[in-house]
C-alpha cells in the first residue's frame, strides 16, 4: 500500500462563473514531486541488490574452494607402537599453492588407542595382529575407500619394543606387516619399524615448534622438548655447543637447517625407573631390618602390596619424599664417574648446557596436572606437593582422591620425586626457571604434543599430482 506522501495530488480548477463558461468535464491531475525519503529507499534497494550480488559471488568462490579442496584431500596414517598401548593416528590434509596444509582439528584428525602395547606380545607375536587389525579398521572408517591405495600407512614402535631382543622385535614386526600389506593402504615393509629414541625426540620437537609457529624460523628461537614416557625419557633441543655426532640430528624445514641435540635415555622412563629402584632396594642392605625387610620411601605409608607383586615379601611402604628423591637421584647418577665427555647430566651420557625455552611433556604433564600445579614455578610447587603426598597415609589418600585408580594413585609419590631428580638435580633446571613449562598441547590451536604428529609432518610428500613417499624434509 502506498504511503500518504506517494499518492497523487488531486487539484480541481474551477473557472469563473461570471464569465459564463461551463465547468471542465474532468479535473486536472498533478503528481507530487518525489521526496528525499523516496530517493533513500531507491538507493537502499540498489545497495541491497549489489550486496546480494557480492555475497553470491563470494559464496560461489567459497563453494568452488571447498569443492577443489574436497577433490584434493589427502590422507596419511601413523601407528605409534608405544610401551603402554598402540595408537593409530589418521590425518587428512590438502594442497594449496603447491604446499601441504595441516589442520589437526576433529574433522581432519582422529586417533584411537588400544592396550596392551606391542611389546607385551613377546611370547605370542601372532597376538599382535588383533589390535593392529582393529586399528586399521578405525582408519578405514575415516579414509574414503577410493583413497586407500594412495594413502600411506606407517607403524613406528618405540621404547617398549626397543627393550626386547632384536629377534623378538622382528617377529612382532613381521606380524604387523602382514596386517598392513593386506589393509588396502599404501605400504612398504620398511614402513613398519622400531624407531630410535632420538627419532622419537626429534618428531616431538617438530610438532611442538610447528604448533608454536617457530618451525621454519631462527634455530636459536625454537623450543626444546623433555619427555618422560614409561620406558624412556627424551631430551631434544637446538644447542649452540659442538655436539658429538652420535647425539646430533639434522633436519631441514623450508630453507632452514636445524642441528639438534637429541637423545633417548632408555630405562629412564617413569615405569622403568621405578622398577630399577625396586631392584636397588631389594639388593640394598643399608635400610634392611633383621627380618630382611627393605623400606620403600617412594610408596605412601600403609600401602599393602598385591600378593603377586615382587615387593610383597621384601619391601615395606614408608613414604618419604626427601628419601625418595635421594634414591631416584642415585639411579640417575649411576655410571657418571665413567663419563667420557666434558659434561654428563645423566649417567655417562653427554648432555649440552640447557638453552632456550622447553616444554615438559607426557608424565611430566600428567603428574603436574594431578597435583594441580601452576605453570609458573611448578617445579618448586612439585616439591611441596610431593612431600605432602608421600607423607600421607594410604587410607587418607584414597579418601582424598576417590576417582583415581589405585594402580595410578600409589605412583605419584615416586613420580613427583623422580621429576625433581631428573629435571632439577640432574639436568639442572632451576626450581623457579620460567623457561620450562609442562604441557600436552601447544600453540593457539592447542595442537597435541604427540610425536606421531611430528612424524606425519616430516613424512608428508610435496607432490601435487599424486602421492609420493619422498619427504620434503631431511632427517639424519
Major sheet strand order:
18-17-9-10-12-11-21
The coarse overall form would be globular
Going by CATH, what is the homologous superfamily of the domain at 266-441? Exopolyphosphatase. Domain 2
Helix content: 25-40%
Average pLDDT reading: 85
For the biggest sheet, the summary is: 7 strands, mixed
Low-confidence stretches: 1-34, 63-70, 462-474
* Number of H- or I-type helical stretches: 13
- The assigned structural class equals alpha/beta
CATH secondary-structure class of the domain at 266-441: Alpha Beta
Portion in strands: 15-25%
Distance between the termini: 80 Å
- The total beta strand count reads 21
CATH architecture of the domain at 266-441: 2-Layer Sandwich
Specify Rg, calculated over alpha carbons.
34 Å
Give structural attributes.
13 helices; 35% helix; disordered N terminus; ATP binding; seven-stranded mixed sheet; Nucleotidyltransferase, domain 5; alpha/beta; single chain; disordered C terminus; 476 residues; globular; EC 3.6.1.5; nucleotide-binding; apyrase; nucleoside diphosphate phosphatase activity
How would you describe the overall organization of this protein?
This protein has 476 residues and is of the alpha/beta class. The chain is 35% helix and 21% strand. The protein has helices at 36-72, 128-140, 159-162, 166-181, 197-212, 270-282, 321-333, 363-370, 378-390, 394-400, 406-409, 412-426, 451-458; strands at residues 9-11, 28-30, 74-81, 86-96, 99-102, 109-114, 152-157, 192-194, 223-228, 232-238, 248-253, 256-266, 294-296, 315-317, 344-346, 349-350, 357-362, 436-438, 441-442, 447-448, 474-475. It starts with 8 loop residues before the first strand and ends with a strand.
Amino acid at each position: 500500500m502506498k504511503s500518504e506522501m506517494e499518492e497523487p495530488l488531486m487539484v480541481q480548477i474551477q473557472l469563473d462563473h461570471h464569465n459564463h463558461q461551463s465547468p471542465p468535464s474532468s479535473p486536472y491531475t498533478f503528481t507530487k514531486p518525489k521526496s528525499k525519503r523516496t530517493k533513500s529507499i531507491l538507493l537502499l534497494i540498489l545497495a541491497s541488490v549489489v550486496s546480494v550480488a557480492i555475497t553470491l559471488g563470494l559464496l560461489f568462490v567459497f563453494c568452488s574452494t571447498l569443492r577443489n579442496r574436497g577433490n584434493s584431500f589427502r590422507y596419511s596414517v601413523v601407528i605409534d607402537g608405544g610401551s603402554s598401548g598402540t595408537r593409530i593416528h589418521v590425518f587428512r590434509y590438502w594442497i594449496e599453492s603447491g604446499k601441504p596444509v595441516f589442520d589437526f582439528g576433529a574433522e581432519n584428525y582422529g586417533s584411537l588407542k588400544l592396550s596392551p602395547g606391542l611389546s607385551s606380545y613377546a611370547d605370542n607375536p601372532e597376538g599382535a595382529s588383533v589390535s593392529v587389525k582393529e586399528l586399521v579398521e578405525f582408519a578405514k572408517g575415516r579414509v574414503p575407500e577410493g583413497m586407500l591405495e594412495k594413502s600411506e600407512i606407517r607403524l613406528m614402535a618405540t621404547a617398549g619394543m626397543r627393550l626386547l631382543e632384536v629377534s623378538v622385535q622382528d617377529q612382532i614386526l613381521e606380524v604387523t606387516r602382514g596386517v598392513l600389506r593386506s589393509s588396502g593402504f599404501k605400504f612398504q615393509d620398511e614402513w613398519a619399524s622400531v624407531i630410535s629414541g632420538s627419532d622419537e625426540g626429534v618428531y616431538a620437537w617438530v610438532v611442538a615448534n610447528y604448533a608454536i609457529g617457530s618451525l621454519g624460523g631462527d634455530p636459536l628461537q625454537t623450543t626444546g622438548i623433555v619427555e618422560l614416557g614409561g620406558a624412556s625419557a627424551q631430551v631434544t633441543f637446538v644447542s649452540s655447543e659442538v655436539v658429538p655426532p652420535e647425539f646430533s640430528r639434522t633436519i631441514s624445514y623450508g630453507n632452514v637447517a636445524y642441528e639438534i641435540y637429541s637423545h633417548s635415555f632408555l630405562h629412564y622412563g617413569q615405569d622403568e625407573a621405578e622398577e630399577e629402584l625396586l631392584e636397588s632396594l631389594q639388593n640394598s642392605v643399608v635400610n634392611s631390618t633383621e627380618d630382611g625387610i627393605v623400606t620403600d620411601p617412594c610408596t605412601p605409608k600403609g600401602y599393602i602390596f598385591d600378593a603377586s607383586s615382587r615387593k610383597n615379601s621384601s619391601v615395606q611402604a614408608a613414604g618419604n619424599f626427601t628419601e625418595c628423591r635421594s634414591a631416584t637421584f642415585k639411579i640417575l647418577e649411576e655410571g657418571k664417574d665413567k663419563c667420557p665427555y666434558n659434561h654428563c647430566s645423566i649417567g655417562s651420557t653427554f648432555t649440552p648446557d640447557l638453552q632456550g625455552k622447553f616444554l615438559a611433556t607426557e608424565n611430566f604433564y600428567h603428574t603436574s596436572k594431578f597435583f594441580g600445579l601452576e605453570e609458573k614455578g611448578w617445579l618448586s610447587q612439585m616439591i611441596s606437593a610431593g612431600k605432602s603426598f608421600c607423607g600421607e597415609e594410604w587410607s587418607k589418600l584414597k579418601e582424598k582422591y576417590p576417582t583415581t585408580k589405585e594402580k595410578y594413585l600409589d605412583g605419584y609419590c615416586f613420580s613427583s620425586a623422580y621429576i625433581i631428580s631428573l629435571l632439577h638435580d640432574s639436568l639442572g633446571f632451576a626450581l623457579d626457571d620460567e623457561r620450562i613449562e609442562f604441557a600436552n598441547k601447544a600453540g593457539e590451536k592447542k595442537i597435541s604434543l604427540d610425536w606421531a604428529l611430528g612424524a606425519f609432518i616430516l613424512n608428508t610428500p610435496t607432490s601435487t599430482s599424486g602421492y609420493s613417499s619422498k619427504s620434503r624434509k631431511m632427517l639424519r
